[in-house]
Amino acid sequence: MSSLIQALDLGTGPKRVVVKDSIDIAGYPTRAGSAALAGAPAAKRHAEIVERTLAAGYRIVGKANLHELAFGMTGLNAWTGTPENPRFPALIPGGSSSGSAAAVAAGLAEIGIGTDTGGSIRVPAACCGVYGLKPTFGRLGRHGVMPTFSSLDCVGPLSADLDELIAFMAAVDDGFAVGEGAAMPRLCRLEVAADTTVLAAVEACLEGAGLAGKKGDLPLMDEAFDAAMALIKRETYMACAAWLDSGRLGSDVERRLRAAAETTDAELREAEAVRLAFTAAVDRLLETYEVLALPTLPHFPLTRAAAEVGQQDLSVSSLVRPFNLSGHPALSLPLPPSRGRPVSLQLIGRRGDDASVCRAARYLVARYLVGTGPDEAIQTTGEAHAQPGR
C-alpha cells in the first residue's frame, strides 16, 4: 500500500513534503488513519508547521499514512492500508509516522513531517533506514496537531538525506542554525540494554569516527520508559475516549485505549516525579558532553508477517521513549544494515540545542559510511523472518 493516503499539490517550491495525517491542512479532513474519523470535517486552517513549511517555499504533495490515532509502534493500519517499508519490505515500517518515513525512503518526497510522542518519528525512521529528528519539546509549535494537548509530543522532520533535514529545520525555525562544517562533538556513549549485534554496529560507527572512548549511563532509563508510558496512556485516552464505543476502531488501538483507561492518578504522580529526576540526570550528563549516543532500537524490528498476526513489541521504543519524557532533542541516523536488517544510532542533545545534535550527526556521516541509499537497499533475509526481534 502507498505511504500516502491523499495526493496534494500545495505550494510552488521544488522540494516536496508529505504531512502526517494527524496534522491539519486547511480544506482537507484530518482523519488520523481511523475509520472513527471518516466523517471528520475539513480543517479550517493550516497547522502551524504547515504554515511554516509553505512560507519557507516547500511544496506539500500528500497527506501521509500512519498507525491509527498515532497510537502504535508497528505502523500497520487495517483501514487505510499499511505502507510498505521500501528498503526492508519484509519488516514493519514502524509507527506511528509510518507513511512519512516510507515516503522519504521511497523518494516520494525530500521531507516527511511526523510527530513523536514515544518514538513515533525515530522508530519508523530506524525501521525504514532514514533520518528522523524529534526536536526539543515545544520547539516546533503543535497548533493544529492531533491530539490538541500532549506533554510528550513533538513535531519533527524525516528525510533520506541529513542535509535536507537540516535545511528544512533552518527554513521553518529562525532560531535553528547548524553552521558550516562538522566539528568533533564531545560525545558520550550510553551503556544500555540492547542486542549485541546492534551494540556492535553502534560501537563500530563511533570507533570509525574516532568517538568511541567515553562511556556513561542513565540508571533511570527503565523508570523513564514506564513513566512515559503512563503519561501517553492517560493523555491518549483523554483525547480519544469518545471513539471507544464507535465500533470503528482497529482492534489493537481499541484494546490499548481500554487498557489506558485503567491508568491511575497515583501512576501519573509517580511518572511526574520520575520525569523531574530523569530530566535532571540527563541534564547533568550533558554538562560534560554535548551529545549522548545510543542505539535507536534495542533490537531488530518485527517482521510485517509477525505484526499482522497480532505480535506486539512496545519494547522497541525502550531507548527512545525516555527522551520524550525529558524533552531533549533526539536524532536517529541510519547505519549500514546488519545481515539485511536496519540498525540506527540515536544522538541526544541539550534541551534547546538541537543544532548540536545535527552537527554531531554531520560529523559522523562525514567520517563513517552511514546509511544506505536506494541503490544499496538490501532485501531482508530468511533469517530475519525467523528472528524478528524481542
TrEMBL record:
Top-level division of the source organism's lineage: Bacteria
Molecular-function GO term, any one: catalytic activity
Domain Amidase: residue ranges: 17-172, 248-358
Pfam families: Amidase
InterPro entries per the UniProt record, alphabetical: Amidase, Amidase_CS, Amidase_dom, AS_sf
Family to which the UniProt record says this protein belongs: Belongs to the amidase family.
Protein name as catalogued: Amidase
Organism of derivation: Halomonas salipaludis
